[in-house]
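Appendix B. Raw example, untouched.
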Amino acid sequence: MTAVPSPAQGSRILIKPSFAGLQEKISFGLSYRGLNKAYHGHGPLRVTVGLEDLNTGDPVMGARLPWVTIVNFCGFSPRQISAGIALKPTKGLTLASEITWKGWSEYRTYLDLWPIPEFEDTYTYRGGSEYTWYPAFSLRILKSITRICLRAGYYYEPSPVQTLDPGYVYLNIPSDNIFDSDLDVFSLGFCLTLAGETMEHEIELFSQYHHLRPYTRMTFIDSIYAYQYNIPPRDEYFPVEISGKAWAIGGGYTIRF
């Protein structure tokens, strides 16, 4: 059993059984990462409001508001614990599964306030497989290929944003407009290892399909939101449909001496 320090305020533990020939057949892993958040700014702010001439843009009258203290977050990574298992049922085949708990209930908005509605903790589920083939091609052009890997995976990422209390909509109480959706991600990968005279070359390619599960959320439209998106101010709720999809592709090249 080994424990490895993590750069993100955490540690990882890997357990490989050393009895009954299971060391190369099964592995267990446990990982912990602490809360990680960053600030864009934290300090006093004084705002001036007023009227200006619509033709010239010159100020007509104004007033200074009292000093206030602001806090802006520019990043938030929740506290999380992951547990996983990897199996090698047959030669060349690896199957892996993992579950991750994320402490999203600690999230606060850029004003250091709890969001409305507050976030809830989530569980992310991942599964993946890899098949490794060590060919022995006789053709000279293919003889340098020493390993071929085919990979596939899936994970489900639930949204930490809770369903809005119907009472807010009924009483027209403002809430935070945080748009998010449960996410399904499917991935495929390919790896090719080439042996050279003094070094080894490895080429990796992958693609991912991200699917945002569609849903409808009651959204509170206030004057600021309406101004930003050029819609009439309402100060009331109306339904917004949320969905989407995205593709991601990438690759890597590694040299081993």
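End of appendix B.
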